[in-house]
Amino acid sequence: MKYDAVVIGGGLLGLFTALEMLRRGYRVAIAEKETLCSSSCSRSTGIMTRQLVLRADIIFADRSIKIVRELEKSHGKIYFKKKGVLTINSRGRVVNRLEAIYRSIGVNYKLLDPYEIRNIWNILKVRDSEVGIYTEDDGILDIGSISYGLRKEIEDLGGSIYETCGDIYLKPDGNRVEKTISVKSSCEVYGEIFILNVGVNTSQVYMKSFGERLSPQQIFLLCQSLAIELGLGDDIPVIYDNVSHLYIVPETFKRAIIGDGPCEFLESPDNVSPSRSLLDKVLDDFIDRVKGADSARPIALISGSCDLTQDHLPFLGRDSRYRNLFLAYGLSTYGTMRSPYLGIQLARLAMGDNVDPEIRVLSLRSTRSIEGCGEIHTPIMYSAYSPSHNF
To answer: In terms of DSSP bridges, do strands 176-182 and 168-173 run parallel, antiparallel, or are they unpaired?
Structure first.
């Protein structure tokens, strides 16, 4: 069977892309190496927050949360838990700029002085020179539940899902893609439009499919987090320290995930050995920020790879060589926050519909490189429920 569209990669973005096209009457297939949401989205803590750096990302996250809430109404399920997100910042221009963006977009936030923060969450250590931004409508997405709900609607609309395909590649025919190639013959699928969304594996799939380098190129970073046991209490929000880049994600009354924004570059996505220096920094920052943190018991250390492009912006658009191929990659460590909205926009782009003008900046552009990590840090990281290095 030949499909109108074939989505390679069954992560959160790919599922929303497929669903949008199915809702518009397209015949859609999803081809996945393992099972739906079994890769990076399954290891995500699920944080969805508007507290990002770039205006466009704040808009994407805001609209993604609204899409999830609408999906909850449609499915009659709860996928999103309002937990609130608190970022701790030094007083200055960054806070003023973020406030201006939040007001222009209509984001509900509170600016808290250090005395208010200590009064509300007395477990936190806050300096008199710091302020907090609290977005109470942000929270945590239940990845397992929403992926199940998306699967069900996709199948109800007649979408085909091919899983456990193993490595999947693309076969070109001139300047177009003809079909997927897999060791599993049932996963060889023909289509009119192909959408490649396989995260850190995009460069590898592209090179093996076409013998050419991806452009813009991917760069890879070490993403590392630590599961700890410490009684933080059930009223603690997600915390992001914009000074040290420490994040704290409470999962239960006693358990939390802590980590640092990824800023150790890797030569390949397969080189994900844990970093002792990064671990030491995270633990020192945690002790510096939370009372009693020196008594926390480490449970598991998790290392993975994340991807960016050379200019640190994700790529979302049509490939420059193959006219029926669309790509999404370089989402760094906060794909979950933007995937619902970006997935829908990618579907509309592939269908030739009008898309958000903000999306245009993520399509073909100059491939200038940015040195260092800059402000790519965000409060999302891998969950400790994935295979881990135990202490």
So the answer is: antiparallel
Is residue 342 included in any domain, yes or no? yes
What amino acid is encoded at 179 in this protein? K
Distance of CA 139 to the CA centre of its chain: 14
Structural domain count, the chain: 1
pTM of the shown model: 0.90
- Alpha-carbon distance of 132 to 88, in angstroms, equals 5
Which of 336, 325, 312 lies closest to 218, judged by CA? Answer: 312
More confident call, 122 vs 45: 122
161 touches 10 (CB < 8 A): yes
249's tokens: 């994600």
Residue predicted with more confidence, 32 or 45: 32
- What CATH number is given to the structural domain containing 321? 3.50.50.60
- Cα-to-chain-centroid distance, residue 328: 12
Residue range of the domain that includes 17: 2-50+56-62+143-217+311-362
For 153-162, what is each residue's pLDDT tens digit? Answer: 999 999 999 9
